[in-house]
Amino acid sequence: MGTKIVLSIVLIVVVVAISLTCIRVIKQSKVGIIMRLGKFQKVAETGVHFLIPFLDKMAYVIDLREIVIDFPPQPVITKDNVTMQIDTVVYYKVTDPVRYVFEIANPIAAIENLTATTLRNIIGELDLDETLTSQRYNKCKNENYPDEATDKWGIKVNRVELKNIMPPQDIQVAMEKQMRAERERREAILQAEGNKSAAILQAEGEKQSAILTAEAKKEAMVRVAEGEKESAILVAEGEAEAIRQTAIAKAQGEAEMIKRTQMATAEGLKLVFSAMKEADIDNNILALKSMEALEKMAEGKSTKLVLPSEAVNFLGTFKG
């Protein structure tokens, strides 16, 4: 009885273990290749799959995502017989898992050799300068990769990129010298252009400064001339006014003096006429003396004569 129980337990454990080994789970973006008795049975898609114990086997699990392979540098020869090393990166994906497993024994090595052969053919048509320029990338990318070779392997090469190009050491030294000379030439050109711009700016600044200085001097000279002109006008007006005032004062003084002289003369005549009248002198003599006195008064510069009333009355006696 105890032996049967032990055997039952052992049998159950074996069955469970075998069942667990027959259950396979395929993850997203992957497929499995199921072999039955050493022969291809089917492709297992994403999900859970049950295998027949001792008959079925999940021989391969293939990744369907794009795969990147960085191959080691490959020697190539340019059109002008320069040997260089080219480091490539290949992007590919599996399109047919069955062919990928059964049509090619080492697909990675096959892709590497096919890529190297294709690049040798491309680089062999280019010289060193063309290979080192950016045109090489465009040509390599646009070059039709031999899909007829990879299609039968269940592989699609999406693109091949040149990660690095390594020319020989002597050419690298020459290229470095050339690049250094080019940098020095560009630096010299930039420095010369900078000096030229600085000189132009300095000359322009000096020009503007000279123009402003000349305009300032011109403005100052104009203001000085206007000031001198106004000063001369004011001086001339002052001198003219002084002369006019002097002439007026002089004329007024002379007129006052003449007036005083005539008044004094008239007063003297008045006294003379009064005295002669009191002395009862002959009228003819009086008239004669009066005329003489009037002649002396008329010799003055004045245009007016001041006569006493006695003289006027006396002269009135000679009417008719």
TrEMBL record:
InterPro entries: Band7/mec-2_domain, Band_7, Band_7/SPFH_dom_sf, Stomatin_HflK_fam. This is HflC homolog. The chain crosses the membrane at residues 6-26. Residues 21-179 form the Band domain. Belongs to the band 7/mec-2 family. It holds the Pfam family Band_7. SUPFAM superfamilies: Band 7/SPFH domain (SSF117892). Keywords: Membrane, Transmembrane, Transmembrane helix. One of its GO terms (cellular component) is side of membrane. Signal peptide: none annotated. The gene is hflC. PANTHER family: STOMATIN-LIKE PROTEIN 2, MITOCHONDRIAL. It comes from the Bacteria. It comes from Clostridioides difficile.
